[in-house]
Design a protein that fits this description.
Blueprint (H helix, E strand, L loop, with lengths): L1 H13 L14 E4 L4 H12 L3 E5 L4 H4 L6 H17 L3 E4 L2 H10 L6 E3 L13 H11 L5 E5 L8 H10 L4 E5 L19 E5 L4 H6 L3 E4 L8 H9 L3 E4 L15 E3 L2 H13 L1 H17 L2 H14 L1
Parallel strand pairs: 1-2, 2-3, 3-4, 5-6, 5-8, 6-7, 8-9, 9-10
Helix pairs in contact: 1-12, 7-10, 9-11
Length: 309
């Protein structure tokens, strides 16, 4: 969500609109990213003052269940609240057709929902050999390296990640991202496997991507999967769980490998490790997906939406 927020700021500024990250009574449009109570109050305030509101549906009850430890107890309430919050927008941006389907299931008017990619900033994510060498030296990565980026949560597929590490002891596995906080579901990430590293929070995500030979994303639930676009921008061969959310923008374009279960993940990873030709082909194809979802490619439509609103 933070990456999406930064992308929005970059596009709004580049398109020449004045913007502020603090409330200003002179604004014309409020864009809301997170469905906190304070944000909902601000949305109501904006409407009272005659402003238009865009809400971004980054979160759904389906993906929240395995993020916050308490959410399983309040899932029905979360679904009701998200319906109220998202429905308060004049426009609802949905990051995928899959998420739009979920929102319609909540009872939200489909005419308000616009499917719009979160986008990827190609100036921030790109292949760079010096970054690769720097990170690989820092973490002692000397072998073929498979990795992932994101919060280390059970929902992200850590069980599959560790399963593969056991099956491929000759390969280095590394997971970049925050591991745990008191609000998050505690993952079973600790392992004595010598070929596995969990780095915790990192500052330079582009450098992390560059250190890898293959990007694996075994998450069980997503609303788009921005790290996949970022990995695509770097040109990494991608192995992803076969989820419906990816079909309209990624897996339907023959630019990555997919797997439904651990055994399929093992077989598909073996294909990637064994074939440099396959890795090169996927790298070339997936870069096209990043270009299609670049901020530059999305700017014209975004400008029209803002002007019309």
């Amino acid at each position: 969500m933070l990456s999406s927020y930064r992308n929005q700021l970059d596009m709004v500024k580049k398109l020449g609109f004045e913007c502020t990250e603090k409330w200003d009574d002179s604004c014309d449009i409020l864009m809301a990213n997170l469905p906190w109570l304070a944000t909902f109050w601000l949305v109501k305030r904006a409407h009272r003052k005659g402003k238009k509101v865009i809400v971004w549906s980054h979160m759904t009850a389906e993906d929240m269940v395995s993020v916050f430890w308490f959410n399983k107890y309040i899932a029905p309430l979360a679904r009701w609240y998200l319906k109220c919050f998202y429905d308060s927008g004049d426009i609802i941006f949905s990051p995928s057709a899959y998420t739009k389907k979920l929102l319609i299931g909540y009872g939200i008017n489909p005419e308000k929902i616009i499917v719009r990619s979160n986008g990827v900033n190609l100036k921030n994510f790109f292949p760079e050999e010096s970054l690769r060498n720097e990170v690989r030296e820092k973490y002692g990565l000397k072998k073929f390296t498979v990795g992932s980026v994101g919060l280390a949560l059970p929902r992200k597929g850590i069980d599959t990640f560790l399963f593969l590490a056991k099956k491929f002891p000759e390969i280095d596995f590394i997971w970049f991202g925050k591991i745990y906080s008191s609000l998050l579901v505690k993952p079973e990430y600790k392992t004595d496997l010598p070929n596995v590293i969990f780095t915790g929070f990192i500052d330079d995500v582009n450098a992390a991507f560059n250190s890898l030979d293959v990007f694996i994303f075994p998450s069980y639930e997503e609303n788009q999967g921005m790290v996949l676009m970022e990995a695509a921008a770097v040109g990494l061969p991608i192995l992803v769980r076969d989820l419906p959310v990816y079909k309209d923008w990624l897996t339907g374009k023959n630019c990555c490998l997919t797997a439904k279960n651990n055994e399929e993940f093992k077989n598909k990873l073996n294909e990637l490790v064994s074939s440099e030709e396959l890795r090169i082909k996927l790298s070339q194809e997936v870069k096209k997906v990043a270009e299609e979802n670049s901020l530059e490619a999305l700017e014209i439509e975004f400008k029209k939406i803002l002007e019309n609103l």
